[in-house]
Amino acid sequence: MNIWPCIWCTGGKIEFIAGDFTELHVSIKRNIRTWNKVGTVYGGSIYSSVDPYFMLLLWEILGKDFIIWDKGASVKFVRPIIEKVKCRFLLDDAILSTIKQKINEQGEYTFELPLKYEDDAGTVYAVFTKTVYAASKEFYKNKLAARK
Q: What is the mean pLDDT of the chain?
């Protein structure tokens, strides 16, 4: 996946993906693709390097009978990034159970997932909140048909 243009161009790098897609690690550092005018990692690179992963992981975990969309995000840049920092995406059993339960009850579910870029010492560089939408494919199809 690191050579997929929308991933590679961010300057971020996938370091680890769990076989069951419940965990993924991404890193970013200052390099030729991320360097900004003041010598730190460009904010657009910081955000775009974490953008697609919760959606992609959930797509793999939930399967073809579900629709997954990124709905929104917020980012707070805490300190400039120069050296390598890492972000850990985790979809534990509690999160996955809640998502499945809400979809079973409501047909759809919009939720927020936290992330952060930090160094090996635990110093935080950026904090994110990703808003994700998930629905059963049947519910989503009916929802779209009702809009027409």
A: 94
Tell me the whole-structure pTM to 2 decimals.
Answer: 0.89
Quote the CA–CA distance of 66 and 54 in Å, as a whole number: 14
The alpha carbon torsion through 125, 85, 16, 94 (nearest 10 deg) reads -20
Closest CA to 106 of 141, 65, 139: 139
Closest residue by Cα to residue 51 from 83, 81, 11: 11
- d(C-alpha 141, C-alpha 67), whole Å: 10
Round the CA-based radius of gyration of the chain to a whole number and report it.
17
Closest CA to 10 of 31, 24, 40: 31
* CATH number of the domain bearing residue 54: 3.10.129.10
Residue 51 corresponds to which amino acid?
A: D
Domain span including residue 134: 5-147
Domain count across the chain: 1
CA 57 to chain centre: 8
